[in-house]
Design goal:
single chain; 82 residues; mainly beta; four-stranded antiparallel beta sheet; two-stranded antiparallel sheet; 6 strands
């Protein structure tokens, strides 16, 4: 997923079987030396209300106000992947 709108933050919710979430690498991480510059931001995950076997996780792309909380060096996070 890519956010190409420079002035907006987008949220994308992905619904997947719980076991599948644990089987995939769901981050798009770039490094400069040993510092993380960008990464996929998963803002929240919750059980899907209609099926307890489904986990819904929300990725946030764009300007991340609390980027330092995630250990990132840049506030603009434009990509998420798995």
């Amino acid at each position: 997923m890519v956010n190409t709108c420079p002035n907006s933050t987008k949220k994308y919710t992905v619904y997947m079987n719980i076991m599948d979430w644990f089987k995939v690498e769901h981050f798009y991480t770039t490094y400069e030396g040993n510092q993380v510059i960008t990464d996929s931001i998963i803002r929240e995950c919750h059980m899907y209300e209609d099926d307890a076997g489904i986990l819904a996780c929300t990725f946030e792309l764009g300007y991340i106000e609390d980027y330092e909380t995630f250990g990132l060096m840049e506030p603009w996070q434009t990509r998420a992947a798995w």
